[in-house]
Amino acid sequence: MQTVYFNHDGGVDDLISLFLLLQMDDVNLIGVSAIGADCYVEPATNASCKIINRFSSQQLDVASSQERGKNPFPKGWRMHAFFVDAMPILNEDVDIKSTISENEAYEDIIEKVMNSSEKVTMLLTGPLTDLAKSLKVEPRIEERIERVVWMGGTLLDKGNVEEPEHDGTAEWNAFWDPEAVQTVFDTNLPIDMVALESTNKVPLTPDIRKRWANERQFEGVDFLGICYALVPPLTHFVTNSTYFLWDVLTTAYVGKPELVEKEEQKLSVITHGPSQGRTFKSEEGRIINIVNDVDRDGFFDFMTELAKKI
Ligand code: AGV
Ligand code: CA
Fold this sequence. Notes:
Protein name: Nucleoside hydrolase
Radius of gyration: 18 Å
Organism: Mammaliicoccus fleurettii
Structural class: alpha/beta
InterPro entries: Inosine/uridine_hydrolase_dom (IPR001910), IUNH (IPR023186), Ribo_hydro-like (IPR036452)
CATH class: Alpha Beta
CATH superfamily: Ribonucleoside hydrolase-like
Strand order of the largest sheet: 4-3-2-1-5-6-7-10-8-9
Domain Inosine/uridine-preferring nucleoside hydrolase: 4-301
Number of helices: 13
Shape: globular
Keywords: Glycosidase, Hydrolase
Strand content: 15-25%
Number of domains: 1
Largest sheet: 10 strands, mixed
Bound molecules: ligand AGV, calcium ion
């Protein structure tokens, strides 16, 4: 059994990650928080509560972050959380056990990690801002954290940021708050970084949508299909808006590590200038486990089977 805390930023794949995490038998989920990075934080927090109340019997209040990053996400992407939050499947009358926490995200992280009897796996599918803040406010959490599993970063020449004043070498979660990456890299925490090298292999494609459509008699698979109807698939070629299953792969890696390949490298991060958010190999860097490959079919089978469990 793994003890897991989940901090996310409310995108379609972040919210689906929460849904799938709740279906994993060997995961004890002790906390959830949302940050307004690739989302607006209010609908992201509300949607998270609704997913927990609808798809799990657990009581788990959701904490919301008040942090802001250096480089804001495009508004169009941030709107997705509103659409998920409004879905009828999340708005039926159900028992409301889980609500919004009184704590801010960083306070919730400190409280949950310090009170856990087991060491905690910190799963983050957005920027590292809340974790960095909790480490600064309460450095003792470091020894209570088993490892950090983060969707972010890349060693590829081409990242996924296409913004003025940037050279395109960074991944977005790192670009949103490069200093937070620096803060977390400066600890001794083991870090598994699910980089674009692996997530580039799991684009949303029309064939996977078709598969979910054909299995929509399962309520959880229907939920996947409806959520992924909000975002553009890979059809002709990759564009700036093409959707990948970045965070879902990161979450699936926690539940089924055999799905991926990893390599150890010493990495640093650039915090200023046109390459800010870029993670790169350097002798002065710190050791990171980079997840750089995935069994694509095994991954889609795993996530679709998890969705059938509800
Ligand atoms: O860089 C990937 C991260 C993941 O955590 N996010 C989306 C995932 O939740 C940012 C992002 C990059 N490209 C995007 C993103 C796109 N085309 N649409 C929405 N978000
Ligand atoms: Ca995300």
